[in-house]
UniProtKB/TrEMBL annotation:
It comes from Paracoccus lutimaris. It comes from the Bacteria. This is Putative alpha-E superfamily protein. InterPro entries: ATP-dep_Glu-Cys_Ligase-2, DUF403. Pfam families: Alpha-E (PF04168).
């Protein structure tokens, strides 16, 4: 497969998953701001969300210090100047699909095109008619439809591996960033840790990841920081956990290595296996002892290194 084709398939998967992440971030912020978390009442948590997403600087260049829900909705969903907004990601995913149209089934292309056309219709609506829940539902519905078409109709060839490698790496990064929102949404005093407010914020993370019911199936009982973090980091049965996402990335890299053999370097595969081994060596107590934010920062950096290695091995014109 040509590197250009592989790159478009890889980034099609990444952009589709990234669009869902932006929508879920918006949902997290909207849910958390509904609950007062200081003695003074409601606090603006949108800045925390921007910091966790790594978009504070770009947002401030666009909107200044006006960190309000209306601007956040525009930035995360509609703003084409934000390359990680839902609108930008869906547009880029469709463009990648158009370039490699002959490598996609008609069902996958129809899913991409439908999402793009319905997005255009949504952009023409008055913003007052829209709310974060509606925008999140729109995004997750179309993302799931395209993902389902990919796994139901695409050949299990190298193109399929590249699409799903993009998905899994982006999902690993996204789950880590959504978890990191909880770090940035700091409670006003240390004695609030373990309180109803603290547990509510963890519940918000679960709901934003569509993992609330699955969590209760796996753990039952009360929602606690330790249980939620374990579910979203180290539980191999959790579909969005860091461990599951990294396992999937490793599996697809192994599949590509079997197909291409010595034709391409195995740097990405080796790095992914190394990161997976390091992740498996952790337990949740160690993660909290060392610091959840520090662990997530390490993991995000590792995923970025794997992504860079994928580019060097497969997408930079060597194939």
């Amino acid at each position: 497969m040509l590197s250009r084709t592989a790159s478009n398939l890889f980034w099609m998967g990444r952009h589709l998953e990234r669009s869902e992440t932006a929508a879920r971030l918006l949902d997290v912020g909207a849910r958390i701001t509904l609950l007062p978390n200081t003695e003074e009442g409601y606090r603006n948590e949108w800045e925390s969300l921007l910091r966790a997403s790594g978009a504070s600087h770009a947002f401030s260049e666009r909107y200044g210090d006006q960190i309000i829900q209306e601007n956040i909705e525009s930035w995360l969903f509609f703003d084409h100047d934000n390359p990680s907004s839902v609108a930008s990601c869906i547009e880029q995913a469709r463009e990648s699909g158009r370039i490699v149209r002959t490598a996609l089934t008609s069902q996958v292309w129809d899913g991409l095109n439908t999402a793009f056309q319905e997005l255009r219709a949504l952009e023409r609506k008055r913003r007052s008619q829209l709310d974060p829940a509606m925008l999140t539902d729109f995004t997750t519905r179309h993302s799931s439809a395209v993902r389902g078409a990919i796994n139901a109709t695409q050949l299990r060839n190298d193109g399929w591996h590249f699409i799903n490698l993009g998905y899994s790496l982006e999902r690993a990064d996204a789950t880590a960033r959504l978890l990191d929102v909880k770090y940035y949404v700091l409670l006003p005093r240390v004695e609030f840790v373990g309180s109803g407010l603290d547990n509510y914020q963890w519940q918000v993370i679960l709901r934003a990841l569509s993992a609330h019911r699955a969590f209760h199936w796996a753990y039952g009982g009360d929602i606690t920081a330790t249980k939620v973090a374990d579910f979203l980091i180290l539980n191999g049965e959790s579909p969005r956990s860091l461990l599951t996402s990294l396992y999937e990335a490793v599996w697809h890299l192994d599949g590509l290595a079997r197909r291409y053999g010595d034709q391409v370097p195995a740097t990405a595969k080796a790095k992914a296996h190394e990161t997976l081994d390091a992740l498996v060596a952790h337990d949740i107590e160690r993660i909290f002892d060392d610091g959840l934010h520090e662990f997530l920062s390490w993991f995000i950096t590792e995923v970025s290194s794997i992504s860079n290695a994928v580019h060097d091995d497969y997408l930079s014109g060597r194939m």
